[in-house]
Write a structure and sequence with these properties.
The complex is a heterodimer of chains A (about 140) and B (about 180). Chain A is elongated. Helix content of chain A is about 80%, strand content about 0%. In chain B, helix 6 runs antiparallel to helix 8. The longest helix of chain B has about 35 residues. The chains are: A mainly alpha (about 140), B mainly alpha (about 180). At the A-B interface, helix 1, helix 4, helix 5, helix 6 and helix 7 of A face helix 1, helix 2, helix 5, helix 6 and helix 7 of B.
Chain lengths: ~140, ~180
């Protein structure tokens, strides 16, 4: 039994050790972005065109990082500036479901094809969910 | 195989080098931003360290008791509704940033966890129960409920689609 426990511990340690350098690099990168990009940056780049704003929101959300709470605050701020709700929903969804910054860790952990396919699909799905959500709300 | 591993290692080190180089440039050009970034880094590390310990313990327990056979039964290709339910609930309840869950998911994937369930787990991580009141505050209760419902539905659809795409690519690459 002691040998099984030791083996399991070493296996877990090994699995962790492989990913730690990439995880630390991603955290360093995230910290850099949070420090360099001010929150006000987000509200300045929307034009009023739903399609263009949604695409901008999707790209911004995909490359943005941080606690989802921050995305709600930013979303709330840009909603007050009359940016379309579809674009804001795309922004919220891509912020939490697409991870361009974290891609190196996802690729290392789960494989390149898995990570890229999942992120592309999550990006596309964000537009569908945003459209459906706003449409459903308008009917209810 | 060796070439492929080498490529992956090179990509990883390239990313690490770029990040460290960015910090070096920031240190030389803007000390205030450099300090702000480092403060942010330590604040994130402090926040996630307890979660890392939880994930480590979970992985250790899984390694101890979950054999490949058992994982395949619960979360493998032949797992049914139970597999989806575990992935959805697991994703919703999982805390902290996504990257702390990758070692565990990588481990379970190697033991036979279906890719669909990993995708569903990751998508449902977007649903944060403690943050729902905040979402409702900013965008309304109706918005929060409708969006969350669609997210759960699409987490399953995305899971199925990713699995299909990966299987299609696999069958294509094995034919070539």
């Amino acid at each position: 039994m002691a040998k099984i426990i030791k083996n399991s511990f070493l296996k877990t340690l090994n699995g962790f050790a492989k990913l730690i350098p990439v995880i630390i690099s991603v955290i360093l990168f995230i910290s850099l972005i949070i420090a360099v990009v001010p929150k006000s940056f987000y509200s300045k780049i929307f034009t009023g065109n739903i399609a263009l704003d949604s695409l901008t929101a999707g790209i911004l959300g995909s490359i943005s990082v941080g606690n989802p709470m921050v995305s709600y605050i930013i979303g709330g701020e840009i909603l007050a500036e009359r940016v379309n709700l579809i674009a804001i929903t795309v922004f919220l969804l891509t912020w939490i479901s697409v991870g361009v910054v974290g891609l190196p860790v996802e690729i290392k952990a789960l494989g390149k094809r898995f990570a890229i396919t999942r992120n592309i699909l999550s990006f596309l799905t964000a537009f569908i969910i945003a459209g459906l959500t706003v449409l459903t709300i308008s009917f209810l | 195989m060796i070439k492929k591993n080498k490529k992956r290692i090179n990509g990883t080190y390239f990313f690490i080098t770029i990040v460290l180089f960015s910090y070096l440039i920031l240190f030389l050009t803007n000390n205030t931003l450099f300090n702000k970034s480092l403060e942010q880094f330590f604040s994130i590390v402090k926040e996630i360290t307890p979660l890392f310990i939880i994930v480590f313990v979970l992985m250790f327990v899984f390694n101890l008791f979950l054999t490949e056979k058992r994982v395949a039964k619960i979360l493998g290709e032949s797992a049914g509704a139970k597999g989806w339910l575990i992935s959805i609930i697991g994703g919703i309840l999982s805390m902290g940033p996504v990257y702390i869950w990758y070692p565990l998911l990588s481990d379970l994937q190697k033991k036979g966890m279906k890719n669909s369930f990993i995708v569903t787990f990751l998508y449902n991580r977007a649903i944060k129960l403690p943050l729902l009141p905040m979402m409702a505050y900013y965008f309304g209760v109706l918005f929060a409920v409708v969006l969350t419902s669609y997210m759960i539905i699409f987490s399953i659809i995305n899971g199925l689609l990713v699995n299909k795409f990966l299987k299609y690519e696999n069958s294509n690459s094995s034919k070539q």
